[in-house]
Design a protein that fits this description.
Length: 98
């Protein structure tokens, strides 16, 4: 088993405004949004200059029937909650451009 030491795991469900906290949402409602996919998180990580790895065929344990994938991000020692909020703001910014 390889080490994930500098990387933190981020699932698309963390950002989903339709989910409750017990179903996997990690953001406050005012930052959460609908239909976040892996590509949205990847684009946000690229814009924030984070190094990342994509694991596309994995399933979030709380919704094991949905093959959503996950992204591993090297946060350079930042707390996961801070990076999560940065990513959410960047996803909103990216969606505003379209």
């Amino acid at each position: 088993m390889r080490s994930r030491k500098p990387f933190l795991i981020f699932w698309p469900q963390y950002f989903d405004g339709k989910l409750s906290r017990s179903e996997g949402r990690r953001l406050p409602k005012n930052l959460a949004m609908e239909k976040v996919n892996l590509n949205d998180i990847v684009n946000a990580a690229q814009n924030l200059n984070y190094k990342y790895e994509i694991e596309q065929s994995l399933k979030y344990p709380r919704s094991w029937w949905d093959e959503s994938g996950r992204i591993l991000i090297n946060t350079n020692g930042k707390k996961k909650s801070k990076v999560l909020k940065e990513l959410a703001r960047q996803i909103r910014k990216n969606r505003g451009k379209n």
